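User: Show me an example of a complex going from sequences to structure tokens.

Assistant: Sure. Here are the input components:
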Amino acid sequence: MIEIRGLEKYFGALQVLKGIDLDVEKGEVLSVIGASGSGKSTLLYCINGLEPIQKGTVLVDGTDVHAKTTDINKLRQKLGMVFQQWNSFPHLTALENVALAPKIVKGKAKSEARDIAEKQLRHVGLGDKLNVYPNNLSGGQQQRLAIARALAMEPEYMLFDEATSALDPELVGEVLDTMRLLAEEGMTMICVTHEMGFARDVSDRVAYFHQGVMDEIGPPDQIFGDAKSENTRKFLANVR
Amino acid sequence: MFDYNFHWRPVMKSLPDLLEAGLLTLQVAALSMVIGIVIGIVLALIRMHMRGPLYWIATSWVELARNTPALFQLFFFGFGLGAFGLHLSPFLIVLAGLSFNCAGYLAENFRGGFQAVPDTQLRAARSLGMTAWQAYTRIVIPQVFRIVYHPLTNQLVWAVLMSSLGMLVGFRELSGETQFFASRTFRIFEYFAVTAVIYYVIVKFILGVSRLLAMRLFRY
């Protein structure tokens, strides 16, 4: 379970998160929507400790992400992350991209890491691309590669940071399908997304962020059908 | 047209010595490159990430190495340190001078290389639970290495040619050895002509190996 209490985050003088309280249960799929600059991506970076925070706490299964005594590298193994700019490692083949972290972070034997990588690449539909370098993959394939790479660490949570917004429109579907598949398998997911269809169909809850504040959170039916906040309604009217 | 008679025999007789000296040239150049790469990476990282005294030391190093004659740098390690009672062997003078020079040039190459790898690569690596060290050595540096690979080859060639300055501090690498024989036999033209060919072959060898290595290393 992820528990966020009173989270505040500044970039210099600019406050990007203004006291966020949020719980994400095991097995839940939470979509986070909102305009650019509303702090939703920063929230993800604070959850896996890629960004330091100024106030509040983030607990992952009871462990304080930002405590000095926390072994952040160990904790991150629980938290898979997929980025907007997929960030495949260009000097490694698809297989090596996925096998590297299990090998050097988890200390798996080479052959075992390879098996894990192969399994995860098949899982996301890249079973025929094992020895291909990322440069020779499409954006959608690279993003699925990134998902496989995160899954290979056997995370308990997956954080998606606008996983489809850098993709050509015709490639969005394949990545969303992969995310749907994960949701059906019971993965706990936090998806920062601009895909309203995905947010509505796949999520258990949808959170709307507005200027560093979580304006509203609720089941998709309520957010999309009967939003309480004026901001949410305005935002949804504009994106639809 | 001119009445100079070429005498190649003395050169041919000392060819084994020249070739051996050529090997020494290659060794000192290669060794100074290895040292230069390590120091160059450190200088680049300091200049990118630190402020204060270390930054100024690194910056001064780069400025001096790049903007003063390599010969003066060699003289510093020879006669300069000698004036303070620290006498290095000719080999060490050349090694220190070349390493100093290479590190300065390579620091700038590496800085460019590091800046060309997006920060997001580091983030992606860290998000998988890699330590900073693992992320740098497994993800960032291999990519930097490709970017600086050809500049590195150039620098190695440059180090080979620059090591000829060693002759001026009494080091008998290829040029020093050539000078030694030439002044004994007065067949100056012949000796330096043959030595030029040896330098040419060494450089071509380096470029050839570098190209083959690149084909093996960089398949992406």
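The lines above are the inputs; the final block is the predicted structure for all two components together. The first helix of chain B runs from residue 9 to 13.
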